[in-house]
Amino acid sequence: MKRIITICLLFAGVYACNNGTPETKTATPDAKVEAKEPATTAKADPTDSPEFQKGLELMNNSDCKTCHKIDEKLIGPAFRDVANKYPNNPATLDTLAHKIIKGGQGNWGSIPMAAHDKLSVEDATAMAKYVLLLKNN
Ligand code: HEC
Predict the structure, then answer these.
(1) What does the pLDDT look like over 56-95, one tens digit per residue?
(2) Is the full-model pTM beyond 0.85?
(3) Rg (alpha carbons) of the chain, rounded to whole number
């Protein structure tokens, strides 16, 4: 095992040296490509999207955290479970947004969700979008 690690280290060293010796001209385009990569992966990760961030911020300013966690059931269902229960489409968004505003019970048990009638439909929809982005099935 140790030998393999040493070989790997040697290889990495040689690679690094090879990379460093040629003129810096080749190094610049390489760096650009590397810088682009995280942006692409960020796109694939919905938690980095502005929609996710907006919903998260709105929820942090509300009382949602008292009853909900992402991966754990508190008084209300885990948001990830909510996301996995429904298809991510405009109809679900609408239903969830109205449920957030009006509250209600019955989809997850007999404990009612508190109403949030001061929330705008726009904000409630942004929160529902955030919840649905947690979907992982
Ligand atoms: C007092 C506790 C409480 C608070 C505060 C609360 N919830 Fe809930 N929430 C619940 C309960 C309980 C349910 C399950 C309702 C049911 O069984 O239909 C629920 C369900 C949900 C659902 C799934 C609805 C469905 O029909 O499947 C969403 C989405 C949701 N809550 C979002 C939010 C958001 C966003 C906030 C903050 C604005 C929030 N909740 C604040 C208790 C709460």
Answers:
(1) 999 999 999 999 999 999 999 999 999 999 999 999 999 9
(2) no
(3) 23
Q: How far is the CA of 103 from the centre of ligand 1 (A)?
A: 7
Examine the domain organization and report whether 33 and 51 are in the same domain. no
97 and 129 together in one domain: yes
Distance CA 133, CA 109 (A): 23
Domain boundaries, position 10: 2-44
Q: Are 124 and 76 part of one and the same domain?
A: yes
* CB-based burial, 81-110: b 16+ in 10 Å, e otherwise: bbbeebeeeeebbeebbebbbeeeeeeeee
Q: Does ligand 1 lie within 6 Å of residue 115's CB atom?
A: no
- Residue 111 CB less than 6 A away from ligand 1: yes
Asked if residue 109 has its Cβ within 6 Å of ligand 1, the reply is yes
Domain count, the chain: 2
